[in-house]
Amino acid sequence: MGLDHLERVLTQNLEELKNEGRLKGKEYIITKTKKAEGQRGPRYLLKGKGEQEFIRMNSNSYLGMSLREEVIEAEEKAAKKYGVGPGAVRFISGTFEPHRELEKRLAKFHQREEAMLFSSAYTAVVGTLFPLITPDTIVISDELNHNCIINALRLARPKDKKIYPHLDMPKLEKSIKESIGQAKRLIIVTDGVFSMRGDNAPLHIISDLSKKYDHNFPENILLVVDDSHGIGAFGETGRGTEEHTKAKGVDLLVGTLGKAFGVNGGYVTSGQTVITYLRESAPLYIYSNPISPAEASAALKSLEILDSEKGRDILAHLRQLTKKFAQGLLDSGYEIIKGDHPIVPLMVRDTAKTNKLVNYLQENGILATGLNYPVVPKGDEEIRFQINADHTPYDIEYTLTVLRNYKQRN
């Protein structure tokens, strides 16, 4: 036995990805983090780059919680008290007090009866959808939903799957009408904030459509929203797309602890009966270790900060920086997708040009991520900038200056 034949095939596959410009390549390695100092926000050192310092403009840590001293202290204190790992899956021996405290606090934050933690938001989405999709369920999904939703539907194999054009509400309503009489249960699933574009689903309209046609389905219409990029970074108090759109009627809300909360893990929140059922039926919850007690304690501290006056100040600062950056790109002649979320996509619409600009930014001490096909549709190639609350006006202006200089040279 050996791998020689397989390795030849895999090498050919990798070469094809490279020729198509889709090979992600080696990941850079962060060797040191330097805390904010003076007018400069945090800086990062990379392996092989010596003492050159970099601004991260591609981090999901929208509120800068991962570097806040009180969050770090909360995790360190819990690690000393409980150890660094859970030891087992929860139904065997893995539930610690911080896990339940966090679940109760998240449920209260989202004004729901109960919540449950997963090891990540990806597993939260798959773990939630898989048990709820029966052979007599039709699922309707936005065409730009995250990969976790796509794979959840592949695994669950619903009776039928309908994909509507991105944010096209008339087409969504048409798909609902076409499903009447065809299944007992209908699930509408959507991202809250679409991670590649920074735009958001009109949850108020979707929830109204769900209510309008719910009586046509014996087991209801369920509206499931993955708002991993929205919660903590969007809405007046950081409660995400649901708050931003003033929607009422989201049945299951999935969030992450690994973005705005700055830690690790994911969760779903809903009614008591639904969550109890998922605890008993979601394989990715039952058979996966939870996040550590220390991570849960750090997330609790992040949530405490967010849900306070300090949190309101952080969000106001984040919105101000986002507007400054977006307007600066427009003033410099760049195309963006306008929105209120701290994801600011710079549309390049060409793979080679995207890679060239990413390399130029890195040469000038800025870490940004280019998104090419198949992560985004062909023609939508972009650089996704993500504004964080621990950025400073100086950081934003420096990044804009580098981009203006590039524009003038190309």
Topology:
Blueprint: H1 4-19, E1 30-34, E2 43-46, E3 55-56, H2 69-82, H3 90-94, H4 97-109, E4 114-118, H5 121-132, E5 137-142, H6 147-156, E6 160-164, H7 169-179, E7 185-191, H8 203-213, E8 221-226, H9 241-245, E9 252-256, E10 266-270, H10 272-281, H11 283-286, H12 293-306, H13 309-331, E11 343-347, H14 351-363, E12 366-367, E13 369-371, E14 382-386, H15 393-409
Parallel strand pairs: 3-12, 5-6, 5-7, 7-8, 8-9
Antiparallel strand pairs: 1-2, 4-10, 9-10, 11-14, 13-14
Looking at this protein, list some descriptive labels.
410 residues; alpha/beta; Aspartate Aminotransferase, domain 1; Aspartate Aminotransferase, domain 2; 2 domains; 15 helices
In helices, the fraction of residues equals 40-55%
Order of helices and strands: HEEEHHHEHEHEHEHEHEEHHHHEHEEEH
Number of strands: 14
The number of helical runs is 15
CATH architecture tag of the largest domain: 3-Layer(aba) Sandwich
CATH class type of the largest domain: Alpha Beta
Tell me the Rg in angstroms: 22 Å
Q: Return residue spans where pLDDT drops below 50 for at least 5 consecutive residues.
A: none
Under CATH, the homologous superfamily of the largest domain reads Type I PLP-dependent aspartate aminotransferase-like (Major domain)
- Overall pLDDT confidence: 95
